[in-house]
Amino acid sequence: MKKKVIDSEAAGPASKKIGDSVEKEKSVISMLGIDATRAPQKAEAPVKLMAEAAEDRASLLLKSSPPPSPTAAQKPDHEPTPAGVEPEPPLNGQLKGEAIDAVGVDEAPAESKAEAYEPSIESGLETQIQPSVESLGSEEDILKEFNSIIKPEEGIIKAEVEEKKEKGGRKEKARLRQKIVFEPYDPEKHGPMAIFTGVPGYEEVERYWVDEPYAFVVILYNESTNNYLYYVVEPSLTVFEKELLIEVYDRLQDVLMMEKLDATTDKKQLLKEKTTQIINDYIGKIDTKSYYKILYYINRDYLEFGKINPIMHDSFIEDISNNGFDTPVFLYHKNYENIMTNIVFSEKQLDSYVIRLAQRCGKHISIAEPMVDATMPDGSRIQMTLGKEITTRGSTFTIRKFKEVPITPIDLIAWNTFSSEEMAYLWLCIENNKSLLFSGGTASGKTSSLNAVSLFIPPKAKVISLEDTRELKLPHMNWIPGLTRDSFTADGKGAIEMFALLKAALRQRPEYLLVGEVRGKEALTLFQAMSTGHTTFSTMHADSVESAIHRLENPPISVPRTMITALDIVSIQAQTYLKNKRVRRNMKLVEINDIDPNTRNIRTNDIFVWNSATDKFDRVGESRVLAEIAQRRAWSKRELSNELLRRQKVLEYMLNNNIREFRQIAAIIHAYAVKPGRVVEKLGIKV
Predict the structure, then answer these.
(1) Is the Cβ–Cβ distance between 512 and 462 less than 8 Å?
(2) Burial of 681 from C-beta contacts in 10 A (0-12 / 13-18 / 19+)
(3) What per-residue confidence (pLDDT) applies to 150?
(4) How many CA atoms lie within 13 A of 220 on its CB side?
(5) Is a pLDDT exceeding 60 seen at residue 68?
(6) CB neighbour class for 532 (10 Å; exposed up to 12, middle 13-18, buried from 19)
(7) pTM score
């Protein structure tokens, strides 16, 4: 993937000196857009009080601003920090007890930087902020920063005007409220939002946007420790912007409580309107860049995932793991594998954040029930614990990220997880109602493969899926997605387990039954369904056919050996290494034949086997399943071979022509199920 290099140049804010207190008062009044000469006599006192209150407010908010200092030199790409420039605080010292700044690198040197904005959810969905600002800076410095941010001329579309109205036969003047609309943010005009100046001891490897133009990621490498660091860079806030953000948060909570929301409400647009209205009413005209910074953090914490939001937008991340408070969040990166980040939660923040995540997932977590499995709004799977009840380092969460658009068979071929010949074999078998089990270790891609090959199910077939946490996504209209449910009470009443769901599903006359994972007594019912003619797909944890059969035969599953022969195909998947790179491969496609009458062992037949030396998939055996399909359809061996070859070429056509979009692939596969000749002709495929 081609990474977009980010310009890290920054311009320092302009400053203006203000004299005595009289001039300051006039300046603040003028900045707030108040014309005392035009206001009615009765309004003079409130206007004066408003101006004085605004000046006092600005002085109090900005009294702790650090003294002005030279703008830190920016670090060029792939070079260490230049000599003479004060570096950022050492990373190691921060990891021992202090939270690492997850917002961004401030523009001042390290010793004069105020602590970054850290939002925390104290209870429920209420967002509160707990900044810690050092008491540095003089009154003159405060006003300098105030003047550099407040710009009367910027962003105004409609100024304050007067219009005449007829009321009781008498003309009166009515004052209209100022309406401020901010111009679109332009990095070239307004300067970059996020700035990265480097981390001592680390060299930059690469950087790329995850939420342009607000947040990007820098991959750093420390040669002495041989460690990579995943550094999230977000817009840095000045002291004034932090305090303004606190003010907007406080007022938003009251404003949003009065709103009536429904399914058609555009929450992002509503949040933007209310934020702009609050700034307009209580602050006035601010710098365009500052406005978009405020809007970014409001959206990030109200609508998205807070501090880990940039990570959630990174398509290279597979797992996100927070192991406790005051410890860095760890990730599994597709290119760098397990990697540490600069994001850290304090104990109070982490507890509140876990509670909020549970609520966003529609679940409840508490000290009484401190462990929850759930599905996040974007489809990712999450496991959470609360407090120190069962995890001694505090609350934890682990997120297994899933793509919003499901993985397709073409993706699996492109990644060489399966070959096109294997996928054509599975396509023909699934279309002809053969049952399938995906087996493998943790994170071997079982569920992703199950979801991908489910596209081969005929478009009008009735499909029922059963899962503990929702992961499967199918394009079929005739599909019932079933989900287990936790109990409402401490004694377990109200719980709907997989076994109950499966029994109910069999009464719904499914043609294809998909079970997320078999691990208990529901497996016996599943194999009973196979024996009675239902086509079933499922997954289980086992690293070989032998261990899969052993797990099925023994408690707690205890499936009789004669029932196991109802299963047609087992796919063994693994996460393995290829030239020091971790990859996912289908190790074997194995058919279950029958029981040996002498040894009573289950006889299996390997059809495809992955060759680690060549990274190819070799066909090593003759298929009993394909022979049964040919017999049922009255195909000769030549006709069977041609049908497999046609399907293989259709898959390769989509791969070679970069047809990777989920709906397009589903449309071609479903069209082939209805009119295979027309599809082959239209694609120009000859066999």
Answers:
(1) yes
(2) exposed
(3) 53
(4) 25
(5) no
(6) exposed
(7) 0.70
Q: Which residues contact 488 (CB under 8 A, 6 or more apart)?
A: 494
Instruction: Return d(Cα 218, Cα 221) in angstroms, integer.
Output: 10
Given 3.30.70.260, 1.20.81.30, 3.40.50.150, 3.40.50.300, which CATH number is that of 409-633?
A: 3.40.50.300
Give the closest residue to 417 by CA, choosing from 616, 264, 567, 218: 616
| Residue labelled with tokens 């003619």 | 533
From the number of C-beta atoms within 10 Å of its C-beta (0-12, 13-18, 19+), residue 525 rates as: buried
What CA–CA distances, in Å, run from 475 to 311, 387, 425, 460, 483?
Answer: 28, 40, 21, 11, 18
Tokens of 513: 């039954």
- How many Å apart are CA 219 and CA 209, to the nearest integer? 12
DSSP code of 454?
A: G
Tokens of residue 136, six digits: 């540095």
DSSP 273-285: HHHHHHIIIII--
| Higher-confidence position of 111 and 339 | 339
Single-letter residue type at 174: A
Dist. CA 476–CA 466, nearest whole Å: 15
Please give the Cα distance from 345 to 357 (Å, whole number). 14
The residue ranges of every structural domain in the chain are: 409-633
pLDDT tens for each residue of 189-222: 999 999 999 999 999 999 999 999 999 999 999 9
Closest CA to 345 of 315, 371, 382, 306: 306
Residues forming a β-bridge with 592: 604
* Tens digit of each residue's pLDDT (9 = 90 or more) over 415-441: 999 999 999 999 999 999 999 999 999
Give the integer Cα–Cα distance in Å for 679 and 675: 6
Residues with Cβ within 8 Å of residue 135, at least 6 apart in sequence:
63, 64
pLDDT at residue 172, as a whole number: 47
Would you call 575 exposed, middle or buried from its count of C-beta atoms within 10 A (0-12, 13-18, 19+)? middle
- The arrangement of strands across the sheet holding 569-578 comes to 479-483, 463-467, 512-515, 535-541, 436-440, 569-578, 581-595, 602-611, 616-619
- The residue among 314 and 17 whose pLDDT is bigger is 314
Q: Which residues contact 484 (CB under 8 A, 6 or more apart)?
A: 466, 467, 468, 495, 496, 497, 498, 501
pLDDT, position 71: 35
Cα gap 571→539, rounded to integer Å: 9
Spell 307-318 as b/e; 16+ CB within 10 A means b: bbbbbbbbebbb
**All residues at 6 or more sequence positions from 316 whose CB lies less than 8 Å from its CB, including other chains:** 333, 334, 335
Q: Where are the beta strands (DSSP E) in 16-144?
A: 119-123, 126-129
Compute the distance between CA of residue 173 and CA of residue 528 in angstroms, rounded to an integer: 83
Q: Average pLDDT in the 673-687 region?
A: 90
Instruction: State the burial class of residue 261 (Cβ atoms within 10 Å of its Cβ: 0-12, 13-18, 19+).
Output: exposed
